[in-house]
Design goal:
By secondary structure, the chain is an alpha+beta fold. The chain has two domains: 175 residues, Beta-Lactamase; 234 residues, 4-Layer Sandwich (Phosphatase 2c, domain 1). It is 41% helix and 24% strand. The protein contains nine helices and 16 strands. The strands form three sheets. Strands 7, 8, 9, 10, 13 and 14 form a six-stranded mixed beta sheet that branches. A five-stranded antiparallel beta sheet has the order 2-1-5-4-3, sandwiched between helices. Strands 6-16-15-11-12 form a five-stranded antiparallel beta sheet. The longest helix is centred in the middle third of the chain and has 47 residues. About 2% of the residues have low confidence.
């Protein structure tokens, strides 16, 4: 009798060992198949779909989901990506945010076979169809990057410790691969965005004048240095049918791509008005109405718009809220060109004024954007008009291009190593005879 019991015990032990070995072989097969399936892909969605399908098959579960998370200052835990696979036609379960919080705090597997009566989640309202679930963390460099969850063991069975162990291994093996794919996709998106920004910068640079007006008795130059790859400052010179030239310098609100788009819109609007040969006042009023109708309430443009008559040597202008240009006479007297009205696009029916001033030999007009005067040094001191005017006075007898270079050089010298915070634009119009 004792020998029979001993033999029976040995047989039982061998059966258990055989079962464990069989289970181990199956687990290794699952892990090897999964590694081959996801190891060569850089598509995060495909990788996660594969992980979930293999997990459902290995766990004998009905539904699975991977939730990727991100840490931010204002939101400690937010869902970035949610990929779900279901082995049946039932409704998809919603991942419970309480689970996400628990996983963030504990970073260890969670097995629940009776959700409604689990003491760890008192007061949590579960979906009625969820009978059991197994939730494991996906961790990269000690940080929770995602959560892999499977729901409802088939045939109304319950998840076991072996299921928990295998799913935890799957998550551990897959976490870095998913993260690598995600980072690869972000890098590709960044490269694509950089290419688009570079293209936008090229287009924007082509919108600026490629050549400056060559008028007898005048030197006219302009320069734009954006603070970012693209900017919101612009200047333009447009020949009119009667021999006059429109000269403008504008500064749109904001920076970067949004500002560059509004800049292009403003330039197109002003050029269309120039072709009508209208005086500055009417051109600005029409442009203001058009821009107000085509831009949002938080967008606006400061603009100086002038028309130079090189035959009669006078400049008619309208200043729409822009920094008042300097008109320095040949004798050193300084005049500010401020006649005009409000910035563009704030009110649809704004009224503007214009003024005409003569230009004598030796007179010079300097248009600039606030990126010049607001250029700031490490001590938070702005360059300002008090520093700009002496530079103009000192170099006003030099050529227009030399004067322009000296203005920009002085503003940059003032800033020192402080990075450029705003677009810098300067236009110089000088009558030389």
């Amino acid at each position: 009798m004792g020998e029979e019991l001993a033999a029976s015990s040995i047989v039982e032990t061998l059966q258990q060992e055989n079962f464990r070995l069989k289970r181990a072989v199956e687990e290794l097969s699952v892990l090897n198949d999964l590694a081959r399936a996801i190891g060569s892909s850089f598509n995060s969605q495909e990788i996660m779909q594969t992980i979930i399908r293999r997990s459902l098959r290995a766990m004998g579960a009905e539904q699975g989901v991977i939730t990727l998370v991100d840490r931010k200052e204002d939101q400690p835990m937010v869902t970035l990506v949610r990929t779900m696979v279901s082995s049946n036609d039932r409704q998809q379960f919603h991942f419970n945010q309480t689970l996400l919080g628990w996983m963030q705090l504990n970073k260890k597997p969670l097995l629940i076979n009776d959700p409604s009566n689990d003491d760890r989640f008192r007061g949590v309202r579960w979906e009625e169809q969820i009978q059991s679930l197994l939730c494991v963390p996906m961790i990269v460099k000690s940080e929770l990057t995602g959560v892999l969850t499977v729901y409802n063991k088939k045939d109304k069975q319950t998840f076991a410790d072996d299921d928990q162990r295998l799913l935890a291994i799957i998550a551990a093996q897959s976490a870095q691969i998913v993260e690598n794919a995600r980072l690869h996709e972000e890098q590709q998106e960044y490269i694509k965005m950089q290419e688009q920004v570079a293209l936008a910068a090229k287009i924007q640079s082509e919108l600026l004048p490629r050549e400056f007006p060559k008028l007898p008795g005048y030197e006219i130059v302009g320069k734009n240095i954006p603070a970012q790859v693209v900017g919101g400052d612009y200047f333009d010179f447009v020949a009119m049918d009667d021999g006059r030239w429109s000269i403008c310098l504008g500064d749109v609100s904001g920076k970067g791509l949004p500002a560059s788009l509004l800049m292009a819109n403003t330039q197109a609007t002003l050029r269309s008005q120039t072709l009508l040969n209208s005086p500055p006042k009417q051109s600005i009023e029409r442009a203001n109405t058009l821009l107000h109708r085509s831009t949002g309430p938080d967008k606006f443009v400061t603009l100086f718009y002038g028309i130079l008559d090189p035959t009669n040597h006078h400049l008619s202008y309208c200043n729409a809220g822009h920094d008042n240009p300097f008109l320095v006479r040949s004798n050193g007297d300084v005049q500010r060109l401020g006649t005009g009205g409000l910035v563009l696009s704030i009110m649809e029916s704004s009224l503007y004024e214009e003024e005409t001033t003569p230009l004598n030999a030796g007179d010079v007009v300097i248009l600039y954007s606030d990126g010049i005067t607001e250029s700031m040094n490490p001590g938070l001191e702005q360059f300002g008009e008090d520093r700009l005017l002496p530079v103009i006075q000192e170099h006003r007898s030099r050529s227009a291009s030399e004067l322009l270079d000296e203005i920009i050089k002085a503003a940059k010298h003032h800033a020192g190593k402080e990075p450029q915070a705003d677009d810098m634009t300067v236009v110089v119009v000088k009558r030389i005879q």
